[in-house]
Amino acid sequence: MEVPLVRVGGFAAALALALCLFAVAQAAAAARGRSPARLVAARNAVFAVAGLVSFAFAVLVHAFVVSDLSVAYVAQNSNHALPMLYKVTAAWGAHEGSLLLWSLYLALLSALAVGLHWRDHPLSMPWIIATLALVQAGFLALIVFLSNPFATLAPVPADGRDLNPLLQDPGLAFHPPVLYLGYVGFAVPFAFAVAAMVRRHIGTEWVGAVRRWVLFAWAALTSGIIFGGFWAYYELGWGGYWAWDPVENASLMPWLTGTALMHSMMAQERRHMFRLWNVFLVVSTFLLTLLGTFLVRSGVLTSVHAFAVDPGRGSYILVFMALAMVAGYGLVIWRAEDLESEAGIEHPLSREAGLLANNVLLLMATLIVVVGTLFPLAVDVVTGAKVSVGAPYFNRVMVPLMLAVVVLLAMGPSVPWRGMPGGRFVRQFRAPALGAAAAFAGAAALGVGEALTLVAIAVVAFAASAVLADLGRAVIARRKVAGCGWARAVWMVLSQGRRRTGGLIVHLGIVAIAAGMIGSGLFQQALTVEMRPGEATRIHDVVLTLRGIEDIEGANWQGRLAHVSVSREGKVVAMMAPGKRFYPLRGMATTETAIHSELGGDLYIFVGDERDGGIVAQIYWNPLVSWIWVGWMVVLAGALLSLSEPERQRRAVVVRPAAALGVPAE
């Protein structure tokens, strides 16, 4: 009798779970008995798990592609009329499939980490494998026993329910997969930190090994957050991209601690400092990725992202997260004495002092987001009352903290280790300070009266000036030393010392994102207006005219589309087509925004109800919002440049601590 493919996929997931437990047992036995054969068996099990989970995920995607409605998960999230792109993306568009995608990433990254570091860290490898396999087992157990995407239906329905219309968008092809990649990427540094603490081998070797993993995971998490903001911006139709929604906060929390970790590791590499900070940040970042999973996957939130409604799943994830918290923080407390730094901060105007301040500020920001996100849930559980913590709270407390972080971002790369004289410090930042003062005065002259807004503008100007000045000094120095032209000097700066130059480019991208957020958040113009064909309205420096309304139809929806012309000084510069769609199978309507982007800002339109042959239009002018997306591309370019630095070049500038610490290097 032929076995259905979906059952084979489910069996592959169950076998992967068994092999994860086998890998944990073999790795633990190898650590105790130093048995090479057991360690090889554990490694091979990790590789086999990667193959099995990849096969299981391919089976699930195939079930969506062929519309196999005997699979309950497919029937709940697809139908015959769903376009092929969304059939594929629906594989991770709901609870069960998103967990399988998470497990796929974890299996692949675990296999990659074990393969890459097998020879470099042989003594830590048993604990690295055991940690990664145990985490993988936790997720696979949830999939196999509580959230099985391969469960079948009988009888088979004639058609499926359809994918959530809000998720029928190309953005779904990028946002969740990239965000999950950032989440899961932090599991590898966590495993290395656990191994280092268990072995009491807490020098710089583990930090050097995970630096690239941290940067990779941070870049992926940053990209996932930006993709999510962009998707919300053009899909949800409210004129913004960040609303301090709990699901948004779930991704921001590990991003904040991951940012602190990425900078703090430099102090351990260079000066053997912040050991306790670094293991604490690694553990915290990983645990916050689990917290994000709990918030989004447990059903405790009411959101388009909160897919699960079964409290059993949420309880499982909560217990799993609690066990990971006890194990992770327990190790940190257990090894606290070994984690004491060899050196201290010698001068307040030093890079290590700036990194410490950066850590404190980012952890304060994380705590604020955690409290603001979990407090309403706690009140609901304890008292049953509904409490809302929204944008006013977060903006009031987070904006000053983030502005302070941006100041440190601008100053950090230019301040040397161990410190610098006060006079030199003043001279170093005199020009950026003048730029900030000019921006402050210019904004005040243009009518900006709110103090925090003026400070924000000045801080962004200071940071941009400082980062550009730092890059400029590097180019000038290369030009003088090499005696070459400007183009050659720029190329040398980009190709030599990529880690530092990449970091400066990342900082420049963050400054651009900050400028975009300030412009679009503080200077947005909004207008609600009724328009009939031939009628016009004005916003910013353009005139919008409704040219007509028409019916439109897609594969699984019907809709209405408005045609709006955009004119500046009597000349048509753009045609925009906002609309609405209705999805009969789900009984849901969606708003389709229209956006016209320019360097100075976005013209943003979405339509509401139709009245008397016309439309109710919500129109926004969002200044500088495109700088956020451009800034992300700059951040990504800088991260890739830093990641591209050859390993031998990085080792040439890092102090190797084995001899100094009296601990044998691996």
Question: Tags for this entry?
Answer:
22 helices; single chain; alpha+beta; 666 residues; disordered C terminus; six-stranded antiparallel beta sheet; four-stranded antiparallel beta sheet; 10 strands; globular
Helix-strand blueprint:
Elements: H1 5-33, H2 36-65, H3 72-77, H4 84-89, H5 95-117, H6 125-145, H7 175-185, H8 187-199, H9 205-235, H10 246-271, H11 275-297, H12 311-334, H13 351-383, H14 391-411, H15 422-428, H16 430-445, H17 451-482, H18 486-495, H19 498-522, E1 525-531, E2 536-539, E3 542-553, E4 558-568, E5 571-576, E6 579-583, E7 588-592, E8 594-598, E9 601-611, E10 614-623, H20 626-643, H21 647-653, H22 658-661
Antiparallel strand pairs: 1-10, 2-3, 3-4, 4-5, 4-6, 6-7, 8-9, 9-10
Please explain how this structure is put together.
The chain is α+β, with helices and mostly antiparallel strands and 666 residues long. 62% of the residues lie in helices and 11% in strands. Strand 4 and strand 5 form a beta hairpin. Helix 2 runs parallel beside helix 6.
Shape: globular
| Amount of helix | 55-70%
Structural class: alpha+beta
Instruction: From the alpha carbons, calculate the radius of gyration and give it in angstroms.
Output: 27 Å
The number of helices is 22
Separation, N- and C-terminal Cα atoms? 53 Å
Total number of beta strands: 10
Estimate the mean pLDDT confidence. Answer: 90
Q: How would you summarize this macromolecular structure in one to three sentences?
A:
The protein is an alpha+beta fold and 666 residues long. It has helices at residues 5-33, 36-65, 72-77, 84-89, 95-117, 125-145, 175-185, 187-199, 205-235, 246-271, 275-297, 311-334, 351-383, 391-411, 422-428, 430-445, 451-482, 486-495, 498-522, 626-643, 647-653, 658-661, and strands at 525-531, 536-539, 542-553, 558-568, 571-576, 579-583, 588-592, 594-598, 601-611, 614-623.
